[in-house]
Amino acid sequence: MNASSSSLLNQDQTDTVSSVTCFYFNAPIFESSATLIVNVIACVLNSSFAIFSSFGNLLIVAVLCKTKSLHKPANILLGWFAFCDFLLGFLAAPAFVAFKIAEITRNFESYCVLRSAYDFTSQTTLSASFVILTFMTIDRYLSLHLHLRYKEVITNRRITGAVLFSWILSLSITVTKLWLDPKTFLFIIKASKLLCLLVIVTVYIKILVLVRRHQIQIDQLTVCDRRGSQRSLYDFCRLKKYACTVAFIVALIIACYVPVVFVSFCKAYVCTEGVEHAKIMYTLTVTFIFFTSALHPLVYICRMREVMDAIKKFFNIK
């Protein structure tokens, strides 16, 4: 190793592990067959997920942008959430695969650069997607709570401002990694996402209460009342279905991200002798995150009729 690279990378060899010191973090590189097998499987799977996530979410973004009838606050948030998934598939997943290949081939200089690129893109994009998902949940609650006043209060301009705030906040949190202690940064980044999940769950409990209340009111209507309130019933059913779609996405994210949080804290604070097992679990849980980002476009298409119709129109399918 030449003198210029040794300032960025120090490698201390033992029998089964290499301790690699990169720009702002230390990483153990295990040489066991179990780690090798998991890394190879993760590279193959995430390469596929990257392709599906990139094309699928880019299609959703393009359709939502082109279809003027879909330029509504809820769909603007959906489009930006899909854009976050697109960045995960287009930037973060390839960077993850690349640094895993560098780890397998023991190209530690490339490993440091690629690992840093993965950290920046994944942390920024995931933070933005969590904040946007929180806004999507709040938007669904307000659509049911405000009802007729919703269009007056929630405008495209305000939603765009909320999205801009999401990205500024996410970038601000990510860049603090350059001067914060790794464990402190880990606590901040994971705690902020758990806070978003807590807000999301709390708001969805409120949504369930509202939906139940509205359903009771609908059931109490007479046949004549229902005929006179046909439009209101249609709007309620549509909002309810959209809220259920967002809830399904939330459930997927909770299922894949909460294990990542526990494994990350285990790697940093708890696991010492068994850190290799924690690293293997982290690789598997990250792979599941990339899988869900590739799955989201199918959720939109299957559960949102207007998105499906817009895609058919986009490809001139009758």
Automatic annotation (TrEMBL):
PROSITE patterns, A to Z: G_PROTEIN_RECEP_F1_1 (PS00237), G_PROTEIN_RECEP_F1_2 (PS50262)
UniProt keyword list: Cell membrane, G-protein coupled receptor, Membrane, Receptor, Transducer, Transmembrane, Transmembrane helix
CDD domains in UniProt: 7tm_classA_rhodopsin-like
Superkingdom, natural source: Eukaryota
Predominant subcellular localization, coarse grouping: membrane
Ranges annotated as spanning the membrane: 36-65, 77-100, 120-138, 159-179, 185-211, 242-260, 280-302
Entry membrane topology: Multi-pass membrane protein
Stretches assigned to the G-protein coupled receptors family 1 profile domain: 56-300
Pfam families: 7tm_1
Subcellular location: Cell membrane
GO cellular component assignments: plasma membrane
Keyword Zinc among UniProt keywords: no
A GO molecular-function descriptor: G protein-coupled receptor activity
Family matches, as PANTHER family: G-PROTEIN COUPLED RECEPTOR
Family membership: Belongs to the G-protein coupled receptor 1 family.
Protein name per its UniProtKB record: G-protein coupled receptors family 1 profile domain-containing protein
Organism encoding this protein: Pocillopora meandrina
